[in-house]
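Lesson 9: reading folded outputs for more than one chain in a single document. The general rule is that every protein is listed as its sequence immediately followed by its structure tokens, and records are never interleaved. Here is the first one.
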Amino acid sequence: MNKNLRNLLITLGILGLLLVIGVGGFLLGRFYFPGQFYNSFFPRMGFWQGVPGRFRGTQDILSINEAENAIDNYLTNYDSINELQIGEIMIFDNQAYAQIVEGDTGIGAFEVLVDQRTMNVYYEQGASMMWNLKYGHMRGGMMGSGSYGDGQNMPISSEEAISIAADHLENYGGKTNLTVDDHADQFYGYYTIHTLDGGEVAGMLSVNGYTGQVIIHTWHGDFIELSEP
């Protein structure tokens, strides 16, 4: 056999093997580990930290009670940390969202999502990961906690954060008619604020308490219901 032809066949064989492995891994993640798969490859991606969940088999909308039970199980990992409690829970057609609050200070600890297919709970991407100076996965990295402080006493007040959020939506390229609520929930390094559509809750955004940067939570889908503690 011609040496060049043999080398070509060997190369094609290796590429074919890699393709089979890649496709196999893709399908394995898609069908057997849907929570991790969705969180890694689709817009509602997040750092998966869920305790083993219940595979629902469908993507029916979660109920408030289902989401609360899943989060209660998740918080057993934090049982002794500042008496963490569930704050408000919001149900969207993509997943459930919840605020985790410190019982002793009343300050928001972090934000989580609940995968409606697997019931796994994981950190929400965006502000909760990047700007959270106490509980965030990137604390000291994306913001540099040593430069900004402890995230509790921020130079931007909640009132100023609401104003910044309103200005941001007004200048959002004409892509939204959303307005902002008159209340901001404080976390360590940022605020999260409800967005409103016609005066009704539609979603949320976060404002960095040091830089004023805004992140709109675009990954939730359509809002369905809210339950406050």
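And here is the second record, again sequence then tokens.
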Amino acid sequence: MGLYGFVVEPHWVSLREIHLTISGLDAEFEGFSILHLSDLHGRVGVFSKQSVQNALQSCDMIALTGDLYAPSLDRRRLARIIDTWDRDKLYYVSGNHDYRQGKLDTSPWEPDATLLDNRAVCLTRHDSELWIAGIPDLVKGSPKLDKVLRSVPTGPPAILLSHRPDGWLLPGTERFQLVLSGHTHGGQVRIPGFGAVFRHNHVPDRFVSGLYKRPGHPILITSRGLGMSELPVRFMARPEILHIILHTTKERRKETAGGVSVE
């Protein structure tokens, strides 16, 4: 692992595309694209890459699933960058590192209407609806999924943002078609033949990142995120940005495990 895990892989970001068929999605939302960002931990360099800038501008929605800063990095750098993003399509839920002394603290960036903790919003195209809901960090925050569910009507497809993949395990998540999460960093260090040393979640099957399915549950997609916390190393768990494209029928569906690397 050595030098590679400390110098190379932490900066070798993957911009990965995932195509999903979403049950109940109307034709008006065919091709709806979500740029999923998680666990930035103060990382800013990747946002100067043209491919990332293009993705931020062209996507229909930016899902930011928590853990914005790192203690050792200037918060103002990342705050200035996030402020350049289109707030009309940005939705943020808090992660455990976004709390100080028990309170949410994202300063100097102010999420305002982008904050989706314990609430839901309806996106409309003509007469069609797509609901986007969120809950705060399951440990540092006060998630109230029951409150969220009361505001989401039966019928239209719905997506839940949860910093931790464990949000997928909460009673009531079967109402959603898709859950987007982060927190795990993909294990950050994975050993061949064993997998992640630390999972940081309780989803079955030693799940730490990627796409997870079980009958009767929504699809779970967990990002490996961009930054690092505590141990400044990555091995077999490259940082990533996910570009998720929604489709209405299986005929239009294509799932890709690869992607375009951001050098």
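What the second record shows: Residues 50-58 form the longest helix (9 residues).
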